[in-house]
Amino acid sequence: MNIKILEPLFLHEVGQRSNNEDCIMPLAGKATTATRIFVVCDGVGGQEKGEVASSIVSQVLHNYLLSHPEAPAGKEFFNLALKEAERQLQLHLDEHPECTGMSTTATVLWIKDDGIHLAWAGDSRIYHFRRGERLYRTSDHSLVQEFVDRGQLTEDEAQSHPSSNVILRAISSPKNPSEMDYKRITNLEEGDVFLLCTDGIIEKLSSSDLARLGGLGDREMMCDHIAAYCAKHSQDNYSMYLLELAEVRDASKAAATIEDSSPASDIDVKKRSQKDKSKLPMFLGAGLLALALLIGFMSWNGSRKAALLKEKQVAIFEKGNEQKELGNHQAALEIYKEASILDPENSDLDLRILEMERAIERQGLESQLHQKLKSDLSRIDADHVLAIADTSLSLSDSIVLSETRDLKKLMAESRFYLGLGDTTTAAQQIKGKESLPYSKGVLDVASYRLLSEYYATLISADSSYTLNQINCLLLAGDISEDEAEARRMRVPGYVPAEDLIENNE
């Protein structure tokens, strides 16, 4: 089965928490259409370093599968990968006893020639959607799922149950061994959508909500809607990988056929023999036989050389893919170029070479932007130290200076993400800050316009963001105060400031 996917989409957000205990593999921005292994984990433990557990387990599971590409996938194989992950967790615990108690959930999706293989432990989930219908969902290892299985709760009731966060299975160490459930899916069609997600995604989004989003026929729109909704409603970290199948083809139908053919001269000789009832000399027949054998040998030898060349090219190509998966873009580029010499007409190789060249350029850009961000943050801190050295400052002035410093840092981080082309994360750094009384001296026109565009994407999920967007357009100077007030009046539930004052009086 030849399975191709569109460019994978992902979320990996801290949400309303102070730190992100989720982990995804490949790491954010590293997955491509050639990626075949996806892992999403949700660390458990908080002070017990859940983020450490999720990071270790996601990397071990990913790399274990990557290093066994020909292994037959199944429950036994995935549990071997799990045992290695538990072993690595124990090695970390031996060196860092302060991490005792950490654990993580895990979901794994592996695309192979015989279908899509799923494995999971805990309450992170994998969904399979087709045209707005949920075909499959992994079963949580949780207390409320047991209630659902017994018929004591519905799925919707379980989602809002007070014990919805109680899980019955997680990955920790060999001292508390676990196991993964397994499912192979072969009922696949072009356009099918797979979602791997932590419980932060499904905190407020039901399976039917996700199915409807999956039926939009636009995975980017689906991702944007999930991101906007979780940003507003989820109290937890929220992470996911969203995959859409671009092509599903049965490889067995591509078998080649060999047609029999005879040399024209041989056919002519046979016809003359039948017509004239004469016999060819023995040496002529032997000569023709030798010639046929020679031609056959040369054809076989040429085919054999072509097959060996193709085999070598494929081996080099796969080696390049391994380096690409590991993030070694320069090494992958050199390998792809070597393969291109053997097969100069391969357009896929040309695309891979271009992809690696752009990835290397992006790495260089990221390095430059990181250096600039580090410099900007240091300068902001230095300026703040000088400012608060003034002994005549009042307490309120000191607070405003500290708040302004923090906002300047957020602005610097926003510009960093903007330089990477990630406008959503850039906007999220300064989201809601336009309403602060001291923001006008820090945020600029470009920032207000960035926020205006970001709020526009959130309005479809929550219309209350309309007022935020209007305010940003006003602060950017793109609309007048009269136009702003006219737009506000069209927002349901909006009350003008003067009416509020009169009502209070």
Report on this structure.
The chain has helices spanning 50-66, 75-95, 143-149, 155-159, 207-214, 219-233, 264-276, 282-325, 329-342, 347-388, 395-419, 423-430, 445-458, 465-475, 481-489, 497-504; strands at residues 2-5, 9-13, 22-25, 37-44, 103-104, 106-112, 115-121, 125-130, 133-137, 181-185, 193-197, 238-249. With 505 residues, it is α+β, with helices and mostly antiparallel strands. It folds into 3 domains: 2-250, 4-Layer Sandwich (Phosphatase 2c, domain 1), CATH 3.60.40.10; 306-389; 392-504. Helix 1 (50-66) packs across helix 2, helix 10 runs antiparallel to helix 11 (395-419) and helix 13 (445-458) runs antiparallel to helix 14. The radius of gyration is 31 Å and the shape is globular.
